[in-house]
Input
Amino acid sequence: MASISRQGIALSAARYIEQAIMLLTPVVLVRTIDPAAFGEYRLFWLLVNTVALLFAFELPRSLLFFFVRLDSEGRRLYVGQTALFLLATTMVAALLVFVFGNALPSAMRDLLRQHGFLIAVFLLASNLGLLLDVLPNAAGQIRWQAQAIAATSVLRAALIISAAVIFRRLEEVLVATSLAACIRLGLLGYFIARYCGIRLFPLDKQQFRTQLRYALPFGVAGLLWNMRKQAEQWIVATVFSSGVFGIFSVATTLLMPFEVLRGVLANLLLPKMSHLHSVGRHEELMLLNNQGNVIISAIMFPAIAALFAFSYEVIQLLFTNEYVSGSPVLRIYLVQTLISAEITTLLSVFGQGSANMRYEASILPFAVITSLVGVWYCGLPGAAVGSVLATFVVYALCLRRLSKVMSVPIARVQDWKNLGKILSVSAACAIAVRLSVDVLNPSAPIAATVGPAAVLATYAAILFVTGYYRTLAEMRREGNALANTSRPVGELASWISSDHAPTKPLSIVSRRW
Output
């Protein structure tokens, strides 16, 4: 079995290619279509992403948990019932969008009237295509998934950019976007036919209920989290013009590389941690999560610090001067990215979806009100304030819950000492380079490229001078050793009938360590 490091590098590289291309696409669009059309393009993505985030209910991601416990027939069954669930919820979502379209912001109502058919096609293709984001990973085909991500990303960008450059109109850009989603759906069909198969009918009600019992609490928690995140964007889309929303969305675009890296970590760790949990190796499970977080943070923290220090110049270089007012928004969101290490895998393997759901439900009104107040008093950056405060509160509550469930102090839930070291060094490097650039006062393009590079180079030099890179290398080796264990199959039936099945939120962790 390939090591988790090589798998992580392959999948992360593919995701970063995808994100680089997704970043390149709006960079080209802002130079080929007018600002109003670009704002409508971003509104299109706000609408379809909202549907995808609110109506998937984490069912596709549950395959990462279940596949290691299933035989081949069980895998075909779970793929089929997940596909049927996505098809049903997408149809309901599309119906709701068009029936209640008059309640949407005026710019989005115009978008539905002019491009309703394209939006419906894209919703259907893209939501079913969500399976491609997790199914190869769950089936152990990491290399195949990495290749598929890179290929579909390049194809999508080529279609969208070509349409924008040739036609310079929004309609052709949306046609290209929908075509790319349909091709991606076809690739998913090829993978299913070759690697795992699918069984659509008849449904096994008991198995479907088992999958729903596990996934729905996390799905509702994710829905509430996404409602909290999307609420900020909807507030901006309602209060401000489409052009201003484009500025706000540019800031969120630059966060994608960090979200992808953390998402890759979670998707790689969950199947392996699910196996460790199924055989009772809880200490190793927690160690694998902690080491993965430290290694990922060693990459993320200096990059976040560099982008924070040079956010104005980076936005100016990538998106022109018209979008630099999004710099304060970007910095606020970067703080939010810093304050939360990856713990969703721990919540997943210990069945804490219900607790997560309660926390998200309780914090949602606070987040929305805070964002509204922030917009009223602080303008565009104020919309992001509610998200940061709510994220901090929910993260603290989840840490407390995990500490209680696993019977360990919060100090052991994560490797806070090493995380603190990495954050301190990253911040110090960013401050030193920012002050040096202010003294030298170079042009904006030079500051946007040389500044972040200098932060990363200084950080890397400190790692080597202090010898801390050896600590990270040792963690990587230990993580590979923990992850490279044989995967049991065909265990789901006994697991369902045991006390560990998630019939109740805490039954999975009824035993003490």
Summary: The mean pLDDT is 78. The two ends are 29 Å apart (CA to CA).
